[in-house]
Design a protein that fits this description.
The complex is a heterodimer of chains A (766) and B (135). Chain A has 766 residues and is an alpha+beta fold. Chain A contains 18 helices and 30 strands. The chains are: A alpha+beta (766), B mainly alpha (135).
């Protein structure tokens, strides 16, 4: 099938506004009479609050309002309802919000914070989940439901399939390792922001928010503030980076709303970069104990994984990463038996959040390291062991995931072939000092949404005006990933009108149809299918009228070049003329249609079995690295990405996601780590928290695997989280291979690599 | 007063972005007498008698986009866009500097000159491509 625009590199519709500084982000909003908010946070990660005195602060000229927990009536945040908006009586991590000020300027608000006097009684905090699990540990979160019989567990997940004992007996090799993954942060280029505008006249609260999930956000904030959700209008200004950080509702958001409600004026809260490091979402740290087996031929036999995650003081969606990680252990490669336990454990560290990949980079790190170690023990080739265990089209996994399409094997073959792996198998280098080698890893991720909420769907309304211009009202959100462009491309392809006659409106909950949010790599798939459903209705409507006007009884109308044309007679009508005929003559109808798409995925049962996504994405990466054995510095030279994307819709957009994901994975692998000491963050600046820069960038080679997923729009499946997932472990595998050491934790800083080299010389393990 | 505050709060030119306000990310890059400078590290008072160009001032109002902006659009170098203004200005300054001495930089040189600008979305590849295409 040949397409006019699908599959062609297409610049983003909004790129012109971005490069010329015209886009309006949350930071750029200024409303008449707007006040500036600031938040007082805990001084200690664990303490009793004996008293709070705001009397001096409230007297400061320019201060309009100060709130503490005593001044507000709110429900707790989070799906576990364990997170108070403003903290009362105690603080449990350094993020804890104690008071908030609204003032004429940001400076005055900050000065007022300094005048608030809080009397604390400091307590010994618990910063290690292992400590928190001990019987004599105090209860950290007073709202904890104590899952799995432990007061400090927020939520536990248990999963199993197959017969572990039988499969153990079949195993010729068994590898057990512990993997330790650090806390890292999204570091969105735009720090967190919100502007709240409450109107006391009509009791409507308008929130200019960067949320990724506007409708869930509207619902949760209504529960927290105890107001009718329909009185809350969420407007998303241009969002300066998401990556999952804006999935949870954070306390600063209802706090800003409360300040606006108390003052009757608009209030804006902008985080500084330092606040962003301290107080925005993170990827949670984890310890993964993994045992895996394989038989003599290298066929995988079983996996047993036990995971302890640092939940921090409160629960976020991050605790639910267990759900995605489970899929990697149960269903990445064929495996007859799997037992999996994961526990999100309260500590006095900052609470987590969700981050691109949603637990999958951590799970995949442990699994793909174990696979390399099993290959070593079996004396097997590291490409071969992955190929013989590869998933395949038509497979239904032990967990019940249905792989109607599956491009894992071709993805593996592409990266093995193109990386020059065969030629370089035994490692090489420019000199004794610089050593080069290759590491592999694969990944599995949901590719058609994930059924975790009662609806995983998206609505679309289409409106064609009398001039033939189309407005797409979509429930989905743009966070920079290019969803507006890809939706417009689909509509352009189907309706035969150019992109510059298409507008996408997607930023206002009062206007746009419902959508569950931008996460789980779901937007192209779910919003795309929703759009195509609406387009079909629109085309039927236009075709019926056009056939009438053309006196055409044939069902042969083509939509192309802005016209509707009969294939047989060649007669055609301009599309806008047909719209006008519908509107201005009987039947006097507007050319507006709506459609709601719900994926075919199902809720999993109590044992977490079932087909949770509309389809599944697969990828394999081969990473060529060079290690400087004198300094321990790891240089990534080439990254080969084979990824089953179903169908490439916009090559320019998809390459951008691949590049961005791989580089984000490199940061996680090599340099990024939030260093906490007793609950305090030691490196809250870009100077000390090292993101990759332009100089670190390898050559990235992308081999799209097009499996034409039948349930996807034009055959496409979700793809944007995937490129981050295998990169860190492929690098760790490469470094381990090159040096003959074991890298089982991240990040691989020069110090860590040097220690591994040193320990090997001295006969120890890394 | 910092130059970025003068630009954003007094002149109401919002294209210059506050990414870190500590000179690490480059989102607030502007040109001062043609040289790329972090406006968060520059005192507003020191702008006296100097020429300043922000992202809004790259074109004369008749042409819609400067060649740097055009190249970034056409190479897919924009995702969320918060770093973009700063990237545009950094590339503009580098391009003008190279042109003034008839120098054609290689890819490594371009990478080195973009080191002061952080992007979290794109992995830099297409930003580097867009700069390379200008020479």
């Amino acid at each position: 099938m040949s397409y006019k625009i699908i599959g062609k590199p297409t610049p983003k519709l909004d790129a012109g506004d971005r490069v010329s500084g015209k886009s309006v982000y949350g930071h750029d909003i200024e409303l008449p009479g707007m006040l500036h908010g600031a938040i007082l946070r805990a001084k200690y990660p664990s303490a009793i609050i004996k008293s709070i005195d705001v009397s001096k602060a409230i007297k400061l000229i320019g201060v309009h309002c100060i709130i503490t927990a005593n001044d507000v009536d709110t429900e707790n945040l989070s799906y576990r309802k364990d997170h108070p908006v403003l903290k009362k009586g105690e603080v449990n991590c350094i993020r804890d919000e104690i008071a908030a000020v609204a003032a004429d300027t940001k400076k005055i608000a900050e000065n007022a914070l300094n005048l608030i006097e809080v009397d604390y009684e400091e307590k010994a905090g618990i910063f290690n989940p292992e400590e928190a699990l001990k019987e004599n540990a105090p209860r950290i979160n007073q709202f904890s439901k104590g899952d799995n019989g432990n007061k400090n567990i927020s939520e536990s997940f248990h999963y199993e399939h197959g017969d572990l004992e039988v499969e153990k007996k079949k195993s010729a090799v068994t590898v057990t390792r512990r993997y330790t993954l650090p806390k890292v942060t999204h570091a969105c280029m735009a720090p967190s922001n919100i502007t709240a505008d409450y109107s006391p006249i009509n009791d409507v609260l308008t929130l200019y928010s960067s949320t990724q999930v506007p409708f869930l956000y509207q619902r949760e904030i209504s529960q927290v503030l105890k107001i009718d959700p329909s009185k809350i209008r969420v407007i998303q200004p241009i969002i300066g980076g998401g990556f999952g950080s804006k999935l949870d509702l954070h306390p600063f958001e209802p706090i800003c709303a409360l300040l606006s409600m108390k003052t009757g004026k608009p209030v804006q809260i902008l985080f500084s970069r330092e606040e962003e490091f301290h107080h925005s979402a993170i990827r949670q740290s984890m310890v993964i104990d993994l045992t895996t087996g394989a038989d003599e031929q290298g066929n995988f036999t079983f996996r047993k994984a036990t995971i302890i995650k640092d939940n921090g003081a409160y629960t976020s969606w991050g605790a639910r990463t267990s759900f995605v990680m489970m899929q990697t252990f149960s269903s990445l490669y064929k495996v007859p038996a799997c037992v999996y336990d994961a526990h999100a454990v309260y500590t006095n560290n900052v609470f987590a959040g969700s981050f691109r990949g949603f637990g999958n980079p951590q799970a995949t790190f442990s699994l793909e390291r174990n696979i390399d170690l099993m290959a070593d023990e079996l004396g097997m080739d590291k490409g071969e062991i992955r190929l013989i265990n590869s998933n395949f089209p038509g497979e239904i996994t032990g967990q019940g995931l249905e792989y109607k399409s599956c491009g894992l094997k071709p993805a593996l073959e592409a990266v093995i072939k193109n990386s020059g792996y065969e030629a370089a198998k035994n490692g090489h280098g420019k000199s004794d000092r610089f050593k080069q080698g290759i590491g592999f890893a694969s990944m599995l991720h949901v590719g058609g949404g994930a059924k975790i909420y009662p609806s995983d769907g998206c609505g679309t309304t289409l409106k064609m005006d009398p001039y033939g211009f189309l407005t797409i009202l979509t429930g989905s959100s743009e966070i920079g990933q290019g969803s507006e462009t890809v939706l417009a491309m689909m509509a352009s392809e189907e309706l035969g009108i150019p992109l510059d006659k298409i507008k996408v409106i997607n930023s206002d909950t009062t206007i746009k149809p419902w959508d569950v949010g931008v996460h789980a790599s779901r937007t192209s798939f779910v919003a795309g299918n929703s759009l195509l459903g609406a387009v079909k209705i629109l085309k039927d409507k236009l075709a019926e009228k056009a056939a009438q006007l053309l006196n055409n009884e044939e069902n042969d109308l083509l939509f192309q070049n802005g016209e509707i044309q009969s294939e047989k007679s060649g007669d055609s009508l301009k599309i806008d003329k047909v719209v006008r005929a519908l509107h201005f003559k009987p039947p006097h109808e507007l050319c507006e249609v709506s459609y709601f798409y719900e994926p075919s995925s199902k809720f999993q049962d109590k044992e977490f079995k079932g087909n949770v996504s509309g389809c599944y994405a697969f990828a394999a990466q081969a990473v060529e690295v060079e290690v400087d054995t004198l300094t321990g510095k790891v240089d990534v030279l080439n990254v080969h990405v084979g990824q089953d994307v179903g169908k490439v819709l916009n090559p320019m957009g998809i390459e951008g996601q691949i590049d961005g994901g791989v580089v984000m994975g490199m940061g996680y692998a090599l340099s990024e780590e939030m260093i906490y000491e007793d609950g305090y963050l030691m490196n809250p600046t870009f100077h000390d928290y090292k993101l990759p820069t332009a100089r670190d960038i390898p050559e990235i080679h992308f081999y799209p695997i097009e499996t034409n997923e039948e349930s996807g729009p034009f055959g496409a499946k979700g793809m944007a989280e995937a490129p981050l997932v295998p990169t860190p472990v492929a690098i760790a595998n490469a470094v381990s291979n090159i040096l003959g050491v074991e890298i089982n934790s991240l990040p691989m800083t020069p110090e860590k690599v040097m220690r591994a080299i040193h320990d090997k010389k001295n006969g120890g393990e890394a | 007063m910092l130059l970025i505050d003068l630009i954003r709060d007094e002149l109401k030119l919002k294209g210059t972005k506050p990414g870190c306000l500590e000179g690490e990310c480059g989102a607030c890059t502007v040109l001062i007498d043609g040289t790329a400078v972090n406006s968060c590290l520059y005192l507003a008072i020191n702008i006296h008698d100097k020429s300043i160009t922000t992202v809004e001032g790259l074109t004369d109002g008749r042409t819609s986009l400067d060649e740097v902006q055009e190249s970034m659009v056409n190479h897919g170098a924009v995702q969320c866009g918060f770093c973009t203004s700063g990237m545009v200005m950094a590339i503009k300054s580098f391009k003008d500097r190279c042109d003034s001495v008839n120098h054609v930089p290689d890819r490594d040189e371009i990478k080195k000159n973009l080191e002061g600008n952080i992007c979290r979305c794109t992995g830099y590849v297409k930003i580097i491509d867009s700069a390379e295409a200008l020479f």
